[in-house]
Amino acid sequence: MELRGSHNVRGTHAATTGGGREDCWSEGATGTLIEAWGDRYVRLNRGHLRQKDWKEVAESVNSRENGVKPKKTDIQCKNRIDTLKKKYKIEKAKPPPSKWPFYYRLDSLIGNDAVSSKKPANITLRVKSKPRTSFVGRSVSTENDNLSSDGEADDDGDDDEIVVKKVHRMEDVDLSDGAACRELARAILKFGEIYERIESAKQKQMMELEKERLEFIKDVECERMNMFMGAQLEIQKSKRKQRPASSATA
């Protein structure tokens, strides 16, 4: 009996000190935690909370608990949210409907529909200001115009800050009934034709150069043979002139 009582005391102490265990959190505290965390999670565009945010979440939970000891720390709140996310995944894998009271609130925060409807984030890019260059087709200029209309540029020395909105869903893009795709395909085909003509002209030029090289080698060989034959004829003539002179002396 004494051993069993000491075991219960140790079990109760462990339950009150473990921040991420189910028996440490009441249903009301868990609901307050989800609301406080969810508000900041959505405000940060469903990004990770910073330590300051977690401390604010813990303060919200502790104020809901009316000072009941022990107070929750930011680490305990973070561990509890991680536990709830794992619990949500388990419940989501089960056949609907879920009887877990926090399932639908978490589904609205971290479910597939919530992630797909995530608002586009604003990204600030610092780029060097350069004059635009024209390219084949109107698709490139159209893309540049869209980039300029989506962002706001502020002069800061030689740099411009351009705010570009990321598009996360295809329905946010207006293709004007495929007109943009057709323009892009036409530009690609035009570029392919130009590239093919350049390659064909390059091959033709290489063939012409090779032909000229062979003709030059042929001309050099003929000239060398002519010079050799001319030298041989001169030698023969000189020998013939020397023979009569030697016979007359004899």
Automatic annotation (TrEMBL):
UniProt superkingdom: Eukaryota
Domain Myb/SANT-like DNA-binding, first and last residues per copy: 23-109
Keywords: Coiled coil, DNA-binding, Nucleus, Transcription, Transcription regulation
Keyword Transcription listed: yes
One Gene Ontology cellular component: nucleus
GO MF term list: DNA binding
InterPro entries tied to this protein: ASIL1/2-like, Myb_DNA-bind_4
PANTHER family: TRIHELIX TRANSCRIPTION FACTOR ASIL2, TRIHELIX TRANSCRIPTION FACTOR ENAP1-RELATED
Name of this protein: Myb/SANT-like DNA-binding domain-containing protein
Protein source organism: Citrus sinensis (Sweet orange)
